[in-house]
Fold this sequence. Notes:
This protein is an alpha/beta fold. It is built from 6 helices and 9 strands, in the order αββαβαβββαββαβα. The radius of gyration is 17 Å and the shape is globular.
Amino acid sequence: MARILSDIPMSAVGPTPIVIYDIHALQEKFYFGDQVIARLVSAMPLLGRMFPNPSAIDIVFPDEGAEKRFGRIFGAYAKILCSKTRSGDQRKVRIESGDPQGRHVVIVDDRALSGGTILAAKKELLSHGAAKVSVFVTHGVFPNRSWERFLDAGFEKVWITNSCPTTAAAVDREGPFEIVSLAESIVQEIMS
């Protein structure tokens, strides 16, 4: 994808800027050619706007990678850091720091495919006394309708952006899903 985007012609004033939301692996920014300037931004501030009072929720990072990518964005919020191990299709999530007891916790991640890590994190958080578990994911890819696993999984809310329009259309008004538009954020990035 980086190679395809790198073939965008130069603009009249130089390399064409492209905006990329929550790139999964930061080293991928170096895959872009000189004809484009990749501006890496995050959709996570949208969650902060939904919960401007940091005491309303605790932020859960399902793994160390999510904490590295998004930790600074949620500076004032209480945080819970998890670790995960994989064995085939099974994911084991363990709470490394933080206490979900009696709290509304929100798992944040850049993308969801099968949702296995998120579902395992929810189970662990509830076993440690979380009152409510929600999810905020930038790219709800959910191939092969894997989003259906979330319909009756006991989530308070599952917020995904409209970065994957086919998925957003499929889950709109389904169970706990709520679509968060990137439109305003995109306009702000273009205008800055």
